[in-house]
Specification:
binds flavin mononucleotide; 164 residues; 7-stranded parallel β-sheet; alpha/beta; 4 helices
């Protein structure tokens, strides 16, 4: 099954899994793409796209969301995710009670605000009614092993019921 790299307006909302990434140097993007590829290999229809293309209004139609996001500055979003984060943090999102989610937060524990942006995204999605499937997973600089472990756990979850 092919992975779809679509601009937001073409994201297929009927897919079982939507994976959005916010990345500056490509770490979060690569993990998002790997996750989408593995999901597709397992027969789980998955979309992946950059948060810079994403309109928060589209959250209303997503059933299962994964956000893979780095942290920059001192707990700040990467540039690609600034628009999304400012709207989410300000509460400018629809009700998310229909949605399930998991956040994969990338960072470096040398920094004071370790994975601060991903943690905030996780908290905001839950505050707006989305159901947390897994606790926010913080990935440190050497994340390969932890990512593989998280991926198995996440892709092993039962799929959401089809609503469309
Ligand atoms: C200038 C700079 C600032 C950073 N600030 C933070 C930070 O505040 N907190 C954190 O956990 N990681 C921080 N990091 C680490 C990045 O989040 C980490 O390298 C991550 O894997 C980057 O993912 P990306 O390439 O997808 O953006 C910083 C890295 C750099 C180079």
């Amino acid at each position: 099954m092919p992975i779809q790299h679509a601009s937001a307006s073409r994201l297929s909302m009927t897919d079982a899994l939507t994976i959005l990434h916010g990345s500056s140097t490509g770490n979060a993007r690569r993990l998002a793409e790997r996750l989408a590829q593995e999901a597709s290999l397992r027969g789980i229809p998955a979309n992946t796209d950059c948060l810079s293309h994403f309109d928060c209004a589209q959250l209303a139609a997503i059933r299962r969301l994964t956000v893979v996001i780095g942290t920059w500055g001192d707990g700040e979003p990467p540039d690609a995710a600034k628009g999304f984060c400012s709207r989410l943090f300000a509460g400018e999102v629809p009700s998310l009670e229909h949605m399930e989610f998991a956040v994969l937060a990338l960072g470096d524990s040398c920094f004071r605000s370790f994975c601060g942006c991903g943690v905030k995204v996780d908290e905001c999605l839950a505050r707006h009614g989305a159901r947390r499937l897994l606790a926010c997973r913080k990935l440190d600089a050497k994340y390969h092993h932890d990512f593989l472990h998280w991926k198995e756990e996440f892709l092993g979850l039962p799929l959401p019921a089809r609503t469309t």
